[in-house]
Amino acid sequence: MNFDLHAVASPTEASSRTWTFAEIVKQPEIAARFKRVREYFFLRESTYDMTSRCNVRCDGCYYFEGDKQNAQDNVDPAAWRALFRAEKERGITFVVLAGAEPALVPQLLQVCYDEIPLGAIASNGLIKIPARVGYRIHISVWGSDATSERIRCAKRMLERQIEAYAGDPRAVWVYTFTRDNIGETREVVEQLAKSGCKITFNVFSSAVGYTGSLTHTPESLAETRKTMLDLLRDFPDTVLFSPYSAAAHTDANSLHDLFSCPYPRQNQSEFGLGRTFRQYRADLTWVRAAACCVPDTDCADCRHYAAGSAIVTARMNRHITNPDQFRAWLDYVDTYLAVWVPGYAKGANLCETAVPPTLAMAAGATAGGGR
Amino acid sequence: MPQTGMERRIAEILIQELKLENVTPDTFDVTTDLVKELGIDSMDLTTVVLVLQGEYKVKFDEDTYPSLTTVRAIAEQIRQLQSAAS
To answer: Of A56, A154, B41, B52, which residue is most buried, by most CB within 10 angstroms?
Structure first.
């Protein structure tokens, strides 16, 4: 595969004519992939902080920003069961269990899984979650073990994560690119590849008020994109990603600026995520005005993989200007499903060039830029 | 029930795209709330909008999606877009 960032810069016949949606989805490989991903349009997500406790403390951690960290933990399994039954009643079909470290409350994870069995857990991967909790498990990596020891204060982090989760089909490692760790990614991916593990990519997104050294610059974003594409090319069986994922998450514009974030924090309408999404704190309360997938992120710097999974996916309408752009969107959704949904296997990417997300941004401007 | 050809065609597309059962284009209640009563997801509604854009040669503003709650509302929106374009 040849991932050429500039390959789509020159107009082609496909990109210069006007296409209708019906014409685009007539193309056989597009039709097949659209049919496949469309089966998952029923997913309606909400997120839940499971506990305010964590066994490590990382520089730049989203959980320990804002006032959600002060919520009093509800540790009553009956209360969680009642909440999840109510969530199911209001149409929630996919749950993301996060903050601070869900592995510390395995009995609550089990209750959640018994009620809504589709979802993912965000964990640091140091404590193995019981196998009977069948959610996807996202294991965070922030660089080599030396870097992790420095910014997460945990020794042999990757080694211990691999010891706990190698061979576990639930596990997907999530490498967060910061300004400082881009050069360490290859050794991490190599180590995971040797153990038969899967990895996807995240981009550090500053919390509101963050002034540390992890925030990206235009130069570090460009280097991150090149590294992502190189690793996708060199480790196709290990890396769950697409060229468009790389382009969208390393653009100079944040995801919100590119696509208009549909989470309630930025979307006051009662449409889509604005109607159904909630972000529960560890005390089982939620606040509409603060609800987004990674609360307290600075929207102007948001390139978070969890955010993109909803923000880019929700903007199908902005990706129908030509077949290549729709292929790119399908690749993005295919990646999202492979990373987040247990049992979904990633297909081959249909678009091997990193279509600029600014095309979709422009389509949104034409459409009015709403939600 | 549809009162215009456009309403009937929108109902037909909805039935086809969303695989709705126990309803035909002629019996579709054009005032049914697609989201609240039929449980249609925003992604499904977007798919229908994209099909309609191609068929009626109009472009819906994203800001209007939340108001596309019934077949009648969709038909009215298309009519407005067509008259604005002409």
So the answer is: B52
